[in-house]
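Person: I keep going back and forth on a fold encoding question. Show me how you would write down a chain together with its backbone fold. Please set it down just below, with no commentary around it:
Helper:
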Amino acid sequence: MHRALIALAAALILFPRQAPGHDPDTVGGLFRTYDAGATWTSINPGIFPSGALALAVNPRDPNHLLLATDSGLWRSRNGGRDWDLEAPETLTGPAFAAAFDADGRRALVAGTSTLFHDDGNRWRPRRAPAGASPARALAAGAAPGCIYLVGRAGLYRSDDGGESWTNVGRALQADRVDALLTLSGRPDHVHAVVAGSVWSSNDGARTWQRRSSANPGKAVEAIGVDPAAPIALWAVAAGQVYRSDQPGAEWRAVGKPIDETSALARAMAIGGKVIVIATDRGVFRSADGGERWEPPRESLPAHVAARVLVGDARNPATLYAGFALTGYEELQQQVRRETASWRSGLGSVGEFGLVVLIALGVVAAAARHLGKLRAKVR
């Protein structure tokens, strides 16, 4: 154990990581609105805003938040006024995804190579499905213990809080799921976006139906529902909003395309006539069903991708938007490069340590031999 710690310390000394420069004009972080996106307030943790990758809102306590960032996991129990860095000695590196259980008592977080489960006392590691780490997203199912994991590859479901996993994505005919939507008001209803197409399940992802008859004709980027009318499914494709009033029904265009038609949608939120879309070019909002679109607010980061858009299940007008300079793919590659560099550095330190140990062994052997000679002379 001591040798490993010495080797690690030497690796950090010999192979230091440069701290990224801070550009105040291009920062990420978390923002909240109480009026469906009309105004936004920064609720960032720490001195400098972190890159927000995922946010989980406790279904039983809307003030209880878990924020996954590129610098770790943060927790707030007062609606984002105060934040604590969670278990920095355990949850090291970026946190890619987070989700509360359906009853709000437990939580699951995805690290770079391991899942971590919180039962209210402490974080414990959980093994992720092979090829799934780091997770793209985590989403709670209808029953306590049910969690969906959108992996680096594949889609999985757990019914025991992440202790075991079942591959429920084979019928989707693709390795990668781009978006997943679970409905708190409709148990076992799940929707997924795969290769630009929408798939739906009404039995907890056990079987899937491709909504080909309801395809807008363009690659779907994000999906959402209005909590007041969850039977209707909404989608964004090439800057245009579409709506399907019931499973199997035709998609129909809603309103006009957003001004930035080249913006790639990441998520969407709907509340009556208000539509909010998070894109790689900021957050766009319409208060009249998509007839007119407001440009990104000045209070939100400019030229930074909005990678998170999460609502409060109890109050649809409360939304959280998260921004990050580095996305999932880039961050995943960065982690791989740094891990390879660290292992290489640790290997070099190990080789040096081996040489030192051999030299010390030679010295010790020579000392013992010299001691024996002296004893004979006496």
